[in-house]
Each structure stands twice: as C-alpha cells, then as structure tokens.
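Forum > Structural Biology > Help requests

Title: Can anyone predict the 3D structure of Protein N-acetyltransferase, RimJ/RimL family?

Hi all, first post here. I have the sequence for Protein N-acetyltransferase, RimJ/RimL family but no way to get a structure on my laptop. I'd be grateful if someone could post the structure tokens.
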Amino acid sequence: MFAISLGDGAVLEPLEPWQADEFLAHMDRGRDFIGQHIGLPDATADLASARAWLQSYADKAAADAGWLYGIRLDGALVGGVLFRVFDAVAGTCEAGCWLEPSATGRGLVTRAARLIIDWAVEERGIHRVEWQVSSANGPSIAVAERLGMTREGVLRANHLYRGVRQDTEIWSVLAPEWRAARTAGAASGAPRAE
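Reply #1:
Sure, ran it for you. Structure tokens for Protein N-acetyltransferase, RimJ/RimL family below:
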C-alpha cells in the first residue's frame, strides 16, 4: 500500500473495506462535528454500514468511477478526501472531504485535496473538478477558495438534510486554471497557502 506524506506527521493513503473497524471508530470520534453538514456519519452508523460504505468506494474505484483516501495524523485516521463522482471519459469529477475536530486547522484537507486534484488533472486528464458544499459549511468553502476554485453559483434549498432545506454552493477549477496556478506558485517561489 502507498502513503503520501502531507507533512507534519500526516499521510494520505487509500481507505479500504478491511479498515471498517478503524473507520467506524474514527467516525464515532467525529460523528457530531462531521455530521453538521454532510450525511457521512448517518450513512456509517454501525460496522455493517461502515463496511458497506467503504465497499461502495472500492467498487467505484474498480469501475473507475470514484476514489477514497484516508488522512492519517501520527498514525491515526482523522479524515479523508474523495472523488464522489469521477468520469474520466467526460473529463469531470467531484471532490469532497471530511475531518474530525481534533485535526482541524492544520491544512490537512487542503494539502490532501491538492494531491488528488493534481493526480486527476495531470494523470487522468480531468478537465473540470467540482466541489459541492453547503452554504453553511464555512471551513469547506475556505478549502475551495484555497484550492483556487471559482464559486459558480448556489442551488437554493436544493438539499433536504436532517429535515432542513439547505443551499448548495458549486465551486470548480478547470485544468488550465489549475496548471496556471501551480506554475505561478512555483515561479514566485512562494509556498502555497494551506
């Protein structure tokens, strides 16, 4: 198995069905925090549903339709990034993330998302990467901004979540924009914002 360093004792690596026990323990630690804006904690409420959710991503990966990676900090699973949708033929994908509260404020999601977007654009030829986020989810919106994404619009009251209608913001970055930002950052010698 591979693990890519994110710096500061953190790594990014595949998250697979055989890790369901560890994934469930991680989800239990962050269930209330993570569940403020996304349904992942509700979809992984016990060992069977956690294993099924991880298996759904293993199946997506086998079909080249989605990918799932865990973020570890000092060996402990603390979050993840994913391609919820991945369509190499159309050249589009949707990235997403989650993180338990103990790992927030370190730039881990931004660094991990940057790695998977680099892979999608440079290795897989993806032209458009989307980031869909609840308008109430300020930390995730901040990640989209740090990734250099453009806010394209808001789908008003489009998503019923735990009995409440929420707005969804659509952010994206196109491959030429992604490459230009990387080139500009490298040319300036400035570190990229976390």
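The chain has one domain: 4-188. DSSP finds six helices and eight strands in the chain.
Shout if anything looks off.
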